[in-house]
């Protein structure tokens, strides 16, 4: 659309002055009084100047406008503030974009930038040792939405849940159930809660098994009966559940050892095998195989198994593997990145670290859960607020920000609740179109050049920014911006509806144009919500 052409024309003007233009950023103006788009390129270029030839951003902005060919789509351009350039698009050009949205419909915002490219997104991947937590729910909303956006942009996306179904945590699970039934002595480190007692009852005929063997049965049960149902309630989708046990059964551990040794990046010391992670920036080398003293036996560490898992996935031809982890994995994430670099997959892995979630009710943090003992479960939250509210609230913040989930706000059925506010806007659009009925749709198409009111052009400008948001998210992975986008869209629509009569507007061509704008807004809002996994109700 217009923004793409504007960036090209601006780039041409900048380069004609002898500057390196780089990636020119053109943004939607925060206020229609300052135009439709704004660019801060002059402020960026001022930093390139040094010595006696230094110019102010204001002077550079004026130079750029002198070289800027006045294209047909532009009404005017002007310099503002310390060196911003504001662009005013001709109303007839802006309004014509409504027609393009209506023509594209459900495909509005789609692109094929990722056509022929494969990306993998791993998320949640919680240990199968108990119910999912609120943090797991946040990871589910984040990962699923990101995968939706990538698919919308033409990428072939695989969604993976890595199941840590072997190792110490599985043995602890078995021991926790045995301790609950008095088979062994209780320890503080064991899992607590009603679900442990439920498992003990469900597997009462298996309590003669060794803890590790029992733990495997319990983990499989929890995955199928606890974790997957909660995932389904969140409307989160996975293409595969990758079992850690398969890493061992398929011999992938030995393959990693062979490759690292062949690259002289692994060595033996004190009966253990070490990875030379210090060569890549680590403070010390890391153990891959531990030695059991006196038994002449080595055991793979979780780190080695995870290297094998990542290597197995990356060898499938993904251009990128995105992994969403809790912020407590910060140091571990770096080690995985170094291991992949060592094995020839530098820059093929992207790790998004996600902060914790706290639940608040009446201003007090809710810490305890009867079922899980020490944390509120995702299922318990879904019982209280439902899938739409949970996903939207989980997506409202950047992953590097902690979420204080306001349960009182989430349960409000009013405009103070952002989910209700956005969904109500969609329902209102649907209601207007339903009242208009089929008869008006058979009339002549509206004259979109009549849409000149500030609230009309502001809404249109916001709608046409949607494709840019989609494309930017495929690079930044900042899916939280969809919540602010949909909230702003609802704002712009409500202001438009308050200021502009739709049904019964005169002349009839104006009524048709405004109905077309309502339909375009509905299409854009629905497409946004669909990517977020939030429903777009026809009525409320």
TrEMBL record:
Keyword terms: Aminoacyl-tRNA synthetase, ATP-binding, Cytoplasm, Ligase, Nucleotide-binding, Protein biosynthesis
Gene Ontology cellular-component annotations: cytoplasm
Residue stretches making up the DALR anticodon binding domain: 422-540
First-tier enzyme category under EC: ligase
Gene Ontology biological-process entries: arginyl-tRNA aminoacylation
Intervals of motif 'HIGH' region: 126-136
Keyword field contains Cytoplasm: yes
Reaction(s) the record says it catalyses: tRNA(Arg) + L-arginine + ATP = L-arginyl-tRNA(Arg) + AMP + diphosphate
Domain called Arginyl tRNA synthetase N-terminal: residue spans: 4-89
The keyword ATP-binding belongs to this UniProt entry's keyword annotation: yes
HAMAP family the record matches: Arg_tRNA_synth
Quaternary structure annotation from Swiss-Prot or TrEMBL: Monomer.
Protein name in UniProt: Arginine--tRNA ligase
Organism the protein comes from: Candidatus Daviesbacteria bacterium GW2011_GWA2_40_9
């Amino acid at each position: 659309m217009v923004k793409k052409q504007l960036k090209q024309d601006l780039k041409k003007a900048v380069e004609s002055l002898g500057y390196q233009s780089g990636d020119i950023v053109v943004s939607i103006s925060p206020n229609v009084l300052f135009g439709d788009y704004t660019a801060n390129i002059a402020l960026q270029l001022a930093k390139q100047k040094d010595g006696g030839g230094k110019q102010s951003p204001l002077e550079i902005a004026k130079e750029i406008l002198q070289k800027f060919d006045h294209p047909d789509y532009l009404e005017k351009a002007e310099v503002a503030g310390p060196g911003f350039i504001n662009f005013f698009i001709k109303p007839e050009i802006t309004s014509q974009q409504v027609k393009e949205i209506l023509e594209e419909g459900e495909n509005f915002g789609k692109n094929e930038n990722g056509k022929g490219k494969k990306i993998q997104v791993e998320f949640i991947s919680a240990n199968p040792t108990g119910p999912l937590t609120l943090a797991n729910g946040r990871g589910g909303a984040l990962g699923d939405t990101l995968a939706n956006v990538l698919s919308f942009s033409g990428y072939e996306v695989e969604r993976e849940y890595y199941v840590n179904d072997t190792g110490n945590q599985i043995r602890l699970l078995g021991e926790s159930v045995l301790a609950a039934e008095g088979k062994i002595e209780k320890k503080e480190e064991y899992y607590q809660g009603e679900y442990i007692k439920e498992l003990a009852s469900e597997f009462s005929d298996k309590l003669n098994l060794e803890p590790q063997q029992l733990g495997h049965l319990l983990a499989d049960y929890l995955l199928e009966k606890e974790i997957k149902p909660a995932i389904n309630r969140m409307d989160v989708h996975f293409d595969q559940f990758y079992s850690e046990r398969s890493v061992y059964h398929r011999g992938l551990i030995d393959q990693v050892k062979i490759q690292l040794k062949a690259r002289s990046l692994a060595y033996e010391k004190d009966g253990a095998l070490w990875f030379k992670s210090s060569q890549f920036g680590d403070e010390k080398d890391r153990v891959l195989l531990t030695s059991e003293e006196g038994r002449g036996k080595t055991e793979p560490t979780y780190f080695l198994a995870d290297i094998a898992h990542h290597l197995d996935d990356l060898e499938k031809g993904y251009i990128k593997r995105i992994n969403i982890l809790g912020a407590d994995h910060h140091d571990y994430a770096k080690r995985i990145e170094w291991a992949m670099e060592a094995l020839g997959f530098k820059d093929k892995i992207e790790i998004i670290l996600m902060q914790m979630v706290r639940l608040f009710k009446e201003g007090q943090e809710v810490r305890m859960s009867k079922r899980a003992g020490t944390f509120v479960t995702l299922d318990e939250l879904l019982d209280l607020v439902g899938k739409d509210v949970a996903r939207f609230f989980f997506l409202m913040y950047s992953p590097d920000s902690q979420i204080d989930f306001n349960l009182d706000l989430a349960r409000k059925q009013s405009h103070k609740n952002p989910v209700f506010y956005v969904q109500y806007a969609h329902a209102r659009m649907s209601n207007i179109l339903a009242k208009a009925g089929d008869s008006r749709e058979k009339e002549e198409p509206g004259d979109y050049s009549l849409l000149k009111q500030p609230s009309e052009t502001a809404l249109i400008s916001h709608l046409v920014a949607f494709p840019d948001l989609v494309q930017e998210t495929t690079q930044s992975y900042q899916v939280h911006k969809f919540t602010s986008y949909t909230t702003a869209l609802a704002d712009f629509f409500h202001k438009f509806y308050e200021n502009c009569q739709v049904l019964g507007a005169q002349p009839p061509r104006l009524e048709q144009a405004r109905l077309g704008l309502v339909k375009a807004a509905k299409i854009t809002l629905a497409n946004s919500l669909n990517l977020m996994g939030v429903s777009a109700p026809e009525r409320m």
